[in-house]
Amino acid sequence: MPAVIILGIILGIFTATESAAIACALAIIVGIFFYRELKFKDIPTVFINTALSTATVTMLLAMANLFGLVLTFERIPQVLAAWMGTISENPLIFLLILNIFLLLVGMVMDGIASIDILVPILVPIAKMFEIDLIHLGGIIGINTVIGSLTPPVGAGLFVASSVGGVKLESLIKQVWPFLGVSVIVLFIVTYFPAIVLWIPSIFS
């Protein structure tokens, strides 16, 4: 199954989003005809449970986007991002403040929404500090992932809790060690940009 999905995406047969539907169809076929653990009479129940899980996740993401919309309407991210550029002329200090800021934003806003809002503001500031834009993209990407798994909002936590059927409190306790390691990786990538830039430098 993984080989079919990966090859399908690479060859352009279907998109990454469509691959999820292909995976579901393959799972049903394999479950019924090969493993024989799934019966035709079970399919309606599977669809209902999937719909309930999807509805829960969709509502959580909708509320996160709504909160992000309120922040955007009040121009809070824009004001804070512009303020960061005036704090210090030292790029190392700016990167530290940028990481803290992005982690806080990621806790309360959806990743795509925060990227759409903040990248146009942060790019000119990064250029002012002579920070490579690929390096900036790596920093923003890692911060977005960490923020989505960090309380109090952490949309990724709610999604994982709903899909896995695990209590949120229990999930948070298990996530903390991984978050700690992720933060260490974040600061290594932040202050050693060659880690991010060496592959692009090969093809440039």
From TrEMBL:
Coiled coil residues, start to end: none
InterPro entries per the UniProt record, alphabetical: DctM (IPR010656), TRAP_DctM (IPR004681)
Transmembrane feature ranges: 6-34, 46-73, 93-121, 133-155, 175-199
GO CC list: plasma membrane
Chief localization: membrane
Superkingdom of this protein's organism: Bacteria
A GO MF term: transmembrane transporter activity
Name of the protein described by the UniProt record: TRAP C4-dicarboxylate transport system permease DctM subunit domain-containing protein
Pfam families: DctM
Domain TRAP C4-dicarboxylate transport system permease DctM subunit residue range list: 2-195
Subcellular localization: Cell inner membrane
Membrane topology, from the record: Multi-pass membrane protein
Keywords for the protein's UniProt record, in alphabetical order: Cell inner membrane, Cell membrane, Membrane, Transmembrane, Transmembrane helix
Organism: Domibacillus antri
